[in-house]
Amino acid sequence: LIDDSQEGEAFGARADETRRLALVTAALIDALRADPRYVVVDLAPVGAELEAKLPIHSCNGCEDRLARAAGARQAIVATVQKVSNLILNLNLYVRDVVAERTSAAMSVDIRGNTDESWLRGVTYLAKNRLLAKDESK
After folding, report:
1. 22-76 residue pLDDT tens
2. Separation of CA 95 from chain center
3. For the chain, N or C: smaller number of CB within 10 Å?
4. Which residues have a Cβ under 8 Å from the Cβ of 68 and sit 6 or more positions away?
5. Residues 94/132, Cβ–Cβ less than 8 Å
6. Which of 70, 61, 79 has its CA nearest to residue 42?
């Protein structure tokens, strides 16, 4: 969570938003597992180092090394940017961990700081951007 709101600056992390991060992470993982093009790797072998590097979106490329160590060829780094309780952005960055570069980036704006809005946003990104089939081939 990247909390740019006045509330975040004044009061810090909120328990409901921390829970929502886990909720949308689980929803994204479920969507990936349901797509035969992807295999979700177990991050347990790099869990301690991953925790030490949080927030992962600010670790200057460490996600590539950690993903390779876990046996992945790609990594997804996701962020939720909170501007206010009304305006939030969900962002997904797909990393090619072999080439050590971002291969895709996608974002959706959501309105409302609720379980429903966060889930709707991550479901939209998964279905319509990340896992969308390329019909031109």
Report:
1. 999 999 999 999 999 999 999 999 999 999 998 888 888 899 999 999 999 999 9
2. 11
3. C
4. 97, 98
5. no
6. 70
